[in-house]
Every structure is written in C-alpha cells, then in structure tokens.
Design a protein that fits this description.
Blueprint (H helix, E strand, L loop, with lengths): L5 E6 L3 H13 L1 H5 L3 E7 L3 E3 L4 H6 L8 E3 H4 L4 E11 L4 E6 H6 L4 E4 L2 E4 L3 E3 L7 H4 E2 L4 H20 L3 H7 L1 E5 L3 H17 L12 E5 L11 H13 L2 E4 L4 E3 L4 E4 L4 E3 L2 E4 L3 E3 L16 E2 L12 E3 L4 E2 L16 H19 L13 E5 L5 E5 L2 E4 H15 L3 H16 L15 H6 L17
Parallel strand pairs: 1-2, 1-8, 2-5, 8-20, 10-17, 11-12, 11-17, 12-13, 19-21
Antiparallel strand pairs: 3-4, 5-6, 6-7, 9-18, 14-15, 15-16, 22-23, 23-24
C-alpha cells in the first residue's frame, strides 16, 4: 500500500522512459485507480522509436509507422505531455517544461512539480566541428532521418540517370558513411543492398557505378561483436565493392566534397554521420551529479548516487556493471541493457513507495547481432559466432521478440512475410518532406527548398 499520493515524473519517451512508465502502470494499477499515484511522461515525440529497425525502415523492408510505438495507446493510465524538459531543480522537486502550446500562447515555460523523478532523456548525436557537416550531413537516429535518407539515395540515382555531366553523376553516386558502429554499418549495408536492387530498374545506372565508403577513426568496426567478426564484416563489405577506410577521419565536407585525413577527396552529395552519441544536454541543466563524460551518476539500484527520489538508466546514466570482472566497469549504453534496466527501475520505484528493499540491476551481456543487408549478418551470442544467413535470421528473431506490443510484432512479421513474396518497393517520396511546395507554387508563392536543396533532405 502506497503511503501517500505520489507524483512520478518520467522525462523521456524512449526505451527507458516508455518501459519504466509501462512497468509502473502495471505494478501500480490499484493505486492509479484510487488516485494515490500520478504518472506523467514528458517526451518530445508522441511515440517511442525502436531504433534497431531504422536500417530496415530506410531500406524499405519495414513501414516507418511500424518502427514506432504510439505512447498514448500503450501508456493509457499515464499523462503523456508532448514537450521538452529544459531544466530540473531537484532541490525544489520542479522541472521546467515547454510544450507545443507554449510558443502559441506566448507564455513562459511551465514548472511541473514531482515527488519521484525518472531522468531518461537518452542521447543525441555526437557532432564534431567538421567544416560543412552542419550544412550537408545527415544523421541516423530518428525514423524521419531514416526515411529521408532512403528518399535521398533513390533521388541521387534519379539525378545520375538524368544528367550528362560526369562530375554531377559521380557526386550523386558517391555515398559516404562516417562511423563504424551498429548504426553506420547496418545503415550502409541495408541501403547499399537496396540501391543495388533498385539499379536494375535504371537503364544507365549499374551497381558498380555507385561508390560506397565507410570511414572509421579506430582500427576496427563493430567492436561489440568481437575482433574476429569485425574483420569478417570488413571482408564481406569489401567484397561488395564497399570501401572500408579504418583509422581515417572526416576532416571536411564543405562544398559537397568529403576530405579525409588520409588525403583522399570524394565529391559527394551524401554524408551520413553516425560517429557516436553523447549524453542529452538536459543533464547539464540539472542539479544532479554527473560523471566526467556528462552522464548521470547512478548506483546499481538505478538511483541517482547520493540523491533521494531521483532515478536514471539507459544512455543518459552511468550504471555500475556488477557482473563485470573488472571493478569500475559500467553497463554499455545499448538497448539490451536499457530494456532490462527499465523493468528493474520501475520495480524499485514501487519498492521505494511501499518501503520495501530495492533490487540490484545485474545482467551479463548476452551478445550482439548486426544485419549487413538482406540475408547477410554477423552475431555473437553467449560466445558463439554466427555469420551470413544464420546471423541475419537471428538478428530478425531477436529484434522481433524485443519490439514492444503484440500489434507491432504482428505487423512487422507480416511485412517481412510479404517482402519475401513480392519485389522491393523502389519509390522515392521526397515530397513528403515538403508537402506544401506544390501548393505554394500554385498559389504564386516561392516554394520551399526541395529535398536536394537543403540540409534536411540531402547532403
């Protein structure tokens, strides 16, 4: 029995935010019905994105709407506020919140009070001061970016097919991906596979005309799957005529020319930046303890270290790994840990409200899976290495089991089944990014920049 009415504020609607609120909603069903507990989730988007499916969404294997989970449908007992927390004053138990209505009303940000705080804003792209990157780079963390990138790649093939200028054609068919982690390698593998298939429908664009380049600053890619599988991945990518440049950095992409640290220059209209993430800027606007890397300092019970009534997990939190042999090791910022941490976090808040002992988060990392395109992949699961089709199949099975809700599982499985029976879709819907352009032109106004003219739709 909860002792008094408790206001729980969950900041963020990603893995940790959604799953923590879902756990609280289930464990505190009676208290919520009696009005003894109030759960508020503040998130910039009304949905949770299942990021491991972004590469397949970009390749057209999964519909974009099935990569996201609508929060209002799942968290029907919570108050979902679409907005952003810009600051937290835990000493007074208040959070500063801006919503979509804030600007419309012309008012100031609201102060939202709470009793228990779950801080899970996630991470943002780690962008380095590379000349031209802000103007021409494309990120790969959101479903909008994934679909925009798919449209952009097909649009570049359209440009190459219709131009007589060899310089324009070469730049359109050169695709540079920066970052050899999951996001970069999987996005590159899926999109190259998609573009190779799409080329059969162009009379003057062949797969060998396209130039795919992966730039990685360290000496290996996919470190999560181990050294051996990392080397295997490099070999497989190179067999597909993908240039894998290790111990190389992007020095500039100004004027649509990718300049690398080894002196190579590639005129290109596509620079995809997946070179790591950093903690969300919100963490610096709180009075909570942070690590040297800017992450929330937490205990193994997922409470903020030395602070009562504050909790954290996922990308934004530095959580001790109690299963590691080496002291001081922290859990990796992966979906595998985030999903499990959210369950323990939700349970521990319930325990705290009821005056019960807290649980310790302990999970030994089970392994990693990565897809490299259709029927291609690598996986290391509990010490066993898989390559090719078995690894790709394991990748699909694992992520199908982890994607939230039966609704999404069924829809994704149906799409995979249909994709195996019919041909790929090769349509570019770039106009989705500027839906009013044609009407503005018809009305006599100046149309918005097209997908190839601005940093959002291209690079």
């Amino acid at each position: 029995m909860v002792k008094e009415r408790a206001r729980i504020l969950v900041v963020g609607g990603g893995y940790v935010g959604m799953y923590t609120a879902l756990r609280l909603q289930r464990r505190l069903k009676g208290e919520l019905r009696r009005g003894e507990v109030d759960i508020t989730v503040v998130t910039p988007d009304p949905y949770m994105t299942y990021q491991p499916f972004l590469p397949e969404a970009a390749a057209g294997a999964i519909s974009p709407r099935h990569v996201v989970v609508p929060l209002r449908r799942v968290l029907h007992r919570c108050h979902v506020v679409i907005g952003e927390v810009t600051a937290v004053d835990h000493a007074t138990r208040t959070a500063t919140v801006t919503t979509l209505a804030t600007a419309e009303e012309g008012g100031a940000a609201e102060l939202l009070g709470y009793d228990e705080l779950v801080l899970a804003p996630g991470s943002v792209s780690r962008v380095l001061p590379v000349p031209g990157l802000a103007e021409y780079g494309i990120g790969f963390k959101t479903v909008e970016e994934a679909i925009g990138l798919r449209n952009h790649v097909i649009e570049q093939m359209d440009i190459a097919s219709s131009t007589r200028d060899p310089a324009v054609r070469d730049a359109a068919l050169t695709f540079v991906f920066v970052g050899g982690g999951y996001a970069g390698v999987e996005a590159l593998g899926e999109l190259e596979d998609m573009a190779r298939y799409t080329a059969r429908y162009y009379h003057n664009v062949r797969p060998e005309d396209m130039k795919w380049i992966l730039v990685e600053a360290s000496d290996r890619i996919l470190p999560e799957v181990g050294t051996e599988l990392g080397r295997y991945t490099v070999t497989q990518l190179r067999r597909r005529n993908i240039q894998v440049l290790l111990e190389t950095r992007l020095d500039s992409c100004a004027d649509r020319v990718a300049v690398l640290s080894d002196g190579q220059r590639f005129p290109t209209r596509t620079v995809v930046w997946t070179a790591g993430v950093r903690p969300h800027p919100l963490l610096a606007a709180t009075d909570l303890p942070l690590t040297a890397h800017g992450r929330l300092r937490c205990t193994a019970r997922l409470a903020v270290d030395g602070v009562e009534h504050a909790w954290g997990a996922g990308d934004a939190a530095a959580v001790p790994d109690v299963t590691a042999a080496e002291p001081g090791t922290e859990t990796a910022p992966t979906a595998q840990h985030a999903l499990r941490q959210a369950e323990v976090l939700g349970d521990n808040i319930v325990h705290a409200l009821r005056g019960e002992p807290l649980e310790t988060y302990a999970h030994k990392y089970g392994g990693s899976v990565a897809a490299l395109g259709l029927h291609k992949g690598v996986a290391q699961i509990y010490g066993r290495r898989l390559k090719g089709y078995p690894a790709w199949f394991m990748h699909r099975v694992y992520h199908l089991s982890r994607v939230p809700t039966f609704n999404r599982k069924a829809r994704v499985l149906a799409e995979w089944t249909l994709a195996g029976l019919f041909k790929r879709e090769i349509v570019s819907l770039g106009s989705l990014e500027h839906p009013r352009a044609e009407f503005e032109l018809a009305a006599g106004g100046k149309p918005s920049p097209g997908p190839s003219d601005g940093p959002k739709g291209s690079s």
